[in-house]
């Protein structure tokens, strides 16, 4: 049996720009598959993430990626926060530590040397509370998501299930005030 649910979220980047997230959660054979796509105010895709439920108490990050021109603005961190808010309490969120570059970046000549990429990815996950361990030559990461009374109230800097159309350029000040108060 398959069941789909679409959620929306909106947040501000570090530079104060509006970013929207479309979150597709589909359930197949009692396992959740979560896909997140983030867009800036012009509708340009800024990043994406894919997380699948492996066991009842384990979710796996298959992919989390922010396009290089948008990095450093907190979009990747917000995607992690969205994932942590969506998945249930008392589960492990795990993944394989594998820095890579997307074809969309490399096709435009944005190539980062591996050591620098590895270092930035390790720093990104570390600052967001993930631990690393090595097994059979593979570096893995994990974080235990503890009890949350209401997942969607976990992060004050993200508005979930908002009507993104309400936050066009004319309502920008209204959005800033709403997010600033949280």
Keywords:
182 residues, alpha+beta, nine-stranded mixed sheet, 9 strands
Describe the protein's architecture and organization.
- The protein has 182 residues and is of the alpha+beta class.
- The protein is 22% helix and 41% strand.
- The protein has helices at 75-86, 103-106, 114-127, 172-181, and strands at residues 2-12, 18-28, 31-40, 45-55, 58-66, 91-96, 131-135, 138-145, 158-160.
- It has a 9-stranded mixed beta sheet, with helices on both faces.
Outline of the structure:
This protein has 182 residues and is an alpha+beta fold. The chain has helices at 75-86, 103-106, 114-127, 172-181; strands at residues 2-12, 18-28, 31-40, 45-55, 58-66, 91-96, 131-135, 138-145, 158-160. A nine-stranded mixed β-sheet has the order 7-8-6-5-4-3-2-1-9, with helices on both faces.
Low-confidence stretches: 149-154, 164-170
For this entry, what is the oligomeric state of its chains?
single chain
Rg calculated over all Cα atoms: 17 Å
Structural class: alpha+beta
Got a strand count?
9
Distance between the termini: 38 Å
Estimate what percentage of residues fall within beta strands. 35-45%
Number of helices: 4
Percent of residues in helices comes to: 10-25%
What would the average pLDDT be, to the nearest integer? Answer: 76
Order of helices and strands: EEEEEHEHHEEEH
Outline the fold blueprint.
Elements: E1 2-12, E2 18-28, E3 31-40, E4 45-55, E5 58-66, H1 75-86, E6 91-96, H2 103-106, H3 114-127, E7 131-135, E8 138-145, E9 158-160, H4 172-181
Parallel strand pairs: 5-6
Antiparallel strand pairs: 1-2, 1-9, 2-3, 3-4, 4-5, 6-8, 7-8
